[in-house]
Design brief:
alpha+beta; 5-stranded antiparallel sheet; about 15% helix; about 30% strand; disordered N terminus
Length: about 750
């Protein structure tokens, strides 16, 4: 259950000393303040929460317009009346008085390229008053809407039918393009499609300004540019690398060699990230295993590209690295780019580790070591912390990037009592994996030796044998001291498993609060057949079992020291239905923390679960209870939430906005004056593609009031999406928006 105000403040006071002053003594304030709109709703809020499909502990009563009320057990009938019918809207729904500007959408021109697909993390580095560089990640290709609308949006045809026909017999196993003869027209067709897809992933940098009328627009400066999935392949714009893994890139070893040494072709699967105080941006390469082989040999060299073949399925286009012969060990890193330097094409800092990076929290304090936090977004992924060898002199000095060339990467060990410690990923660290029986799914993956790669352990007895054979991480990896350290970093997730780091519940964001503490989102506590699951001693539902809906954790380093080797933690917020102790959201993802320490969260429910019907009694056609995963249809679309860290509503979640159909809301980022919130709308129409002729379904949902009384909701649900154009049969396009209050003129006109 979510932590309430009293417990939250006690945790701060007991754990962090002066940190409690932030929560207790600092004046509660809100973003989006301006001289025209100063009115407040109850509790210090300056927006009226929008109504979602689910009754919440805090909600808006239509009978008391503008008044924030607390529902209680006597309000069941009121809740049923208010929520018995609901219409989902294919738009970005915001509170009254707010609007959004579409800054850029897939296909828009950027330098000599285009704005990519599935925009995710957003960074705004200001270069003057209300102007600056917007850096945007482009994560992956959603197969259905991309294939369906490419020609209409980009204005160019591609041989999709030929490619799909050629690879269809192989299914998800895919096709090894390297084995196809060069003169075979199928190979040329695949290369053409794959190149287009690779152009649509990576990083984009665009310059923007706020006009006199309040709207954010592009300025198309010479700095605008794209770093794509194949940068360097034809244009010479290779990415660079620092740290011990460079020694592995430069060696001839057991595995596949791309013959490029420390030069790297492109970046892809760019999900979340972080922005430094010195004005550079970090982009996390997340699900790289869908493009290139993840496993490596003991010396850190890659498996052959044929181990991850090219494929197209109902969800995505994958195995793209196979088409271009990419070395898998060069992907899965954090990429740094300076948006103000038009000649910077990105640097991968290998001391930060290779795993499925979702985000990074950056803590730069003068006189202290530089610290980076990040999580591996997989079921059983770890929380990591890099601590630099040398200290920060000036947090705004661009020379701080050089501190990432030396230091140590640690993985977190969480204890059930609310404490934890950091385990160094270095050669002399003792091998001590957690038992598979302590994990959801009853399995853990460990490095496989001497063959390379990994193997699944499902019996506790196997751990003892593994520890007897390998005493330290150095026994699992090969090479000189530097090469061995590089191999450990390349294989970070499995090395962390081997030393007993805690397997967690899909960590998706790591954000530093104004007081220096850390917030972490854990998106889902369910298990995976291939990756395993989280440690059930830490990540569990109230029944002690796996819990799908996720948590937000608050972590405070002991002594408030960035380089501390121990910490305290507590769950700040829990997903799930209010009737079950949750706050009304599911699968928390990216965070933005405002200057008062309040949390703005976007969530990431699977596209195929959004608004999926839930029959009366919550049972399937075989009369069996629906799984937690299948109950996610109750929550509607992915959305934007506000969670106060202080004030009257601490410990609650308020709904600020709701995304368009089948999208994920991602990358929230405030301007310095907090009057604008940038947001990425990713993959609208991912499941059904273009909404045709305003098609909609009527579906039934077995909802619950906040005290658990079941009632049936009739919900109208658009099928597919036409966002952002919103006209009949418009193609759905990922886009980045700027959310702000309407100005005086706009308040008298319809919103976007």
């Amino acid at each position: 259950m979510a932590i309430k105000r009293r417990d939250f403040l006690l945790f701060l006071g007991a754990s962090a000393g002066t940190l409690a002053l932030h929560a207790c003594g600092q004046k509660f304030s809100m973003p989006f303040e301006d001289s025209v709109n100063t009115n407040q709703v109850a509790g210090g809020l300056n927006f009226k929460p929008v109504q979602g499909p689910m009754p919440l502990q805090t909600s808006i009563s239509t009978a008391q317009a503008g008044q924030l009320i607390q529902f209680n057990t006597s309000a069941d009938r009121q809740q049923e009346q208010l929520y018995k019918s609901y219409e989902v809207v294919d738009d970005l729904v915001l509170p009254e008085g707010f609007t959004y500007d579409i800054i850029a959408a897939w296909g828009d021109k950027v330098g000599d390229s285009r704005f990519g697909y599935n925009n995710d993390y957003i960074s705004f580095v200001e270069t003057g008053q209300e102007e600056g560089f917007l850096t945007v990640n482009f994560e992956y290709i959603s197969a259905k809407p991309w294939l369906e609308t490419y020609q209409k949006v980009i204005g160019k045809s591609l041989p999709f039918a030929q490619v799909e026909q050629a690879i269809k017999p192989a299914g998800r196993d895919g096709v090894n393009v390297g084995a196809i003869a060069d003169k075979d027209p199928t190979k040329k067709a695949i290369q053409e499609v794959a190149k287009a897809a690779m152009i649509d992933v990576g990083i984009g940098i665009i310059s923007i300004i706020r006009n006199d009328d309040g709207r954010w627009v592009r300025t198309n400066s010479p700095n605008d540019r794209r770093i794509t999935g194949i940068s360097g392949l034809e244009d010479g714009h290779y990415l660079k690398a620092t740290g011990p893994a460079v020694a592995v890139f430069n060696k001839k070893g057991k595995g596949y060699i791309d013959k490029l040494g420390d030069k790297i072709i492109g970046t892809f699967n760019n999900c979340a990230g972080g922005t430094t105080p010195w004005g550079t941006v970090f982009s996390g390469e997340e699900n790289f295993q869908n493009f290139v082989p993840e496993p490596v040999f003991a010396d850190g060299t890659s498996f052959d590209p044929s181990k991850k073949n090219f494929y197209i399925d109902s969800e995505e286009i994958g195995g793209l690295g196979n088409v271009f012969g990419l070395a898998g060990n060069k992907y899965g890193w954090m990429v740094e780019v300076d948006p103000a330097n038009p000649n910077d094409w990105g640097t991968k800092h290998t001391w930060l580790g290779r795993y499925r990076h979702e985000a990074v929290g950056i803590l730069a304090v003068a006189g202290k070591p530089l610290v980076f936090y990040s999580g591996c977004d997989r079921r059983s992924g770890h929380i990591y912390k890099f601590v630099s060898k040398n200290t920060v002199t000036d947090p705004k000095d661009k020379a701080n990037s050089k501190l990432l060339a030396e230091g140590m990467l640690y993985a977190a060990k969480f204890n059930a009592g609310g404490t934890g410690s950091w385990i160094p990923l270095q050669a002399d660290t003792v091998v001590n994996p957690d038992l598979p029986s302590s994990h959801a799914g009853g399995a853990i993956n460990l490095p496989k030796r001497p063959e390379g790669g990994i193997f699944k352990v499902e019996k506790d007895a196997e751990i003892a044998a593994f520890k007897q054979k390998f005493q330290t991480l150095g026994d699992l990896y090969e090479g000189t001291d530097t090469e061995k350290q590089g191999a450990i970093l390349i294989d970070a997730h499995y090395a962390a498993n081997a030393v007993g780091a805690t397997c967690t519940a899909r960590p998706e964001d790591t954000e530093i609060a104004p007081d220096g503490s850390l917030y972490i989102t854990f998106t889902s506590g369910s298990a995976s057949g291939s990756d395993g699951g989280p440690d059930l001693r830490i990540f569990q539902g109230k029944d002690g079992k796996a819990y799908e809906y996720g948590w937000i954790m608050h972590l405070i380093e002991d002594g408030n020291e960035p380089g501390a080797m121990s910490f305290k933690w507590k769950m700040f917020a829990t997903g799930g239905e209010p009737a079950e102790g949750g706050l009304g959201f599911s699968n928390p993802d990216n965070l933005a923390i405002d200057k008062s320490g309040n949390i703005w969260m976007v969530n990431d429910m699977s596209s195929d679960k959004l608004n999926s019907a839930v029959p009366a009694g919550r049972i399937d056609k075989d009369k069996k209870p629906l799984s937690q995963s299948d109950l996610r249809g109750l929550y509607g679309n992915n959305a934007i939430w506000f969670l106060p860290a202080s004030g009257p509503q601490v410990g609650e979640a308020l709904l600020f906005g709701i995304g368009p159909m089948e999208c994920e809301t991602t990358g929230p980022f405030f301007t310095e004056d907090q009057k604008t919130l940038f947001l990425a709308i990713q993959h609208p129409g991912e499941v059904n593609g273009t909404r045709k002729d305003m098609a909609a379904d009527t579906r039934k949902f077995a909802m619950k009031t906040i005290d658990g009384t079941e009632f049936v909701q009739t919900r109208k649900v658009p099928v597919g999406s036409n966002w952002p154009g919103k006209k009949v049969n418009n193609p759905p396009k990922p886009a980045v928006v700027a959310i702000r209050r309407m100005n005086a003129q706009q308040l008298t006109q319809p919103a976007n």
